[in-house]
Structure to design on (298 residues):
């Protein structure tokens, strides 16, 4: 592999890992507070992409329909939390898990009925089209560069939020010990709503970046990103936001460089190699790379 090819694959891996990270952060935040594996989080990404297409088809300029798509995604996340999850708070974990699967299937079928089964082209904004030539004959797509810069910027802002603001500190305290946080006067409902709001907002941004990357939108498009984000959070340590980000980039680099280095006859088995590596990681470190080593209290 030449230096130019390595540079291109490196940016591709950063871009893919960045999208996985944006989705994985939402999974990790909700799990750290509610102990809920929110498989419906993938449908938040789908909703954002679907509404981006619907708004763009009505002739709105791209800065407007991108903001509206993210806003609708956030609204959808808040509605799901209020209608589906809040009434079941305190229920057994398996109940919440089955509920998240039910919400996921319900949203997929709702999109199928209203949006249709045929994929539609994603209206990639003009600034994301084309290539950029970097020193060393490295040619990268604009969408990959924008994806990396956007994801890093959002993660920096999120880090500042959870470490420097009162609400962010309350979220960390609730994730550490919800009962103690409640006794200290923290409004748990507010913390949970903020977690869903932030997760849905990041999923909305990921929807736009993923749509621009793959070039199409369909009702089932949220499954693969949320599955890969789930794998990333397991690798990094479920409930750990830094772990989710680390796992996402490990997964992104693994996928891209496996495709680049494996013979053509083996590239179709990329996911098999990825999940085999996941099994090996969990055999030696079941809690994930950055997961807590403390045993759970029963």
């Amino acid at each position: 592999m030449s230096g130019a090819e390595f540079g291109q694959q490196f940016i591709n891996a950063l871009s893919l890992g960045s999208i996985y990270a944006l989705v994985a952060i939402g999974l990790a935040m909700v799990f750290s507070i509610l102990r809920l594996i929110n498989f419906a989080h993938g449908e938040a990404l789908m909703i954002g992409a679907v509404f981006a297409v619907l708004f763009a088809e009505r002739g709105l300029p791209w800065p407007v329909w991108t903001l509206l798509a993210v806003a609708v995604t956030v609204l959808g996340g808040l509605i799901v939390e209020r209608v589906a999850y809040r009434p079941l708070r305190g229920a057994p974990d398996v109940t919440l898990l089955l509920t998240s699967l039910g919400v996921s299937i319900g949203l997929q079928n709702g999109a199928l009925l209203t949006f249709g089964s045929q994929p539609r082209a994603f209206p990639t904004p003009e600034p994301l089209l084309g290539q950029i030539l970097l020193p060393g004959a490295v040619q990268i797509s604009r969408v990959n560069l924008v994806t990396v810069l956007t994801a890093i910027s959002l993660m920096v802002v999120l880090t500042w939020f959870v470490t420097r603001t009162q609400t962010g500190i309350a979220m960390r305290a609730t994730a550490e010990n919800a009962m103690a946080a409640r006794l200290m006067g923290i409004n748990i409902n507010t913390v949970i709503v903020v977690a869903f709001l932030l997760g849905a907002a990041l999923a909305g941004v990921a929807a736009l970046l993923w749509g621009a990357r793959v070039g199409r939108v369909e009702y089932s498009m949220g499954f693969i990103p949320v599955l890969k984000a789930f794998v990333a959070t397991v690798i990094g340590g479920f409930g750990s936001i830094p772990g989710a980000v680390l796992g996402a980039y490990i997964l992104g680099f693994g996928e891209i460089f496996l495709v680049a280095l494996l013979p053509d006859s083996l590239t179709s088995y990329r996911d098999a190699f990825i999940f085999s590596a996941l099994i090996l990681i969990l055999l030696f470190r079941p809690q994930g790379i950055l997961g807590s080593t403390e045993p759970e209290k029963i």
Observations:
- The chain has one domain: 19-230.
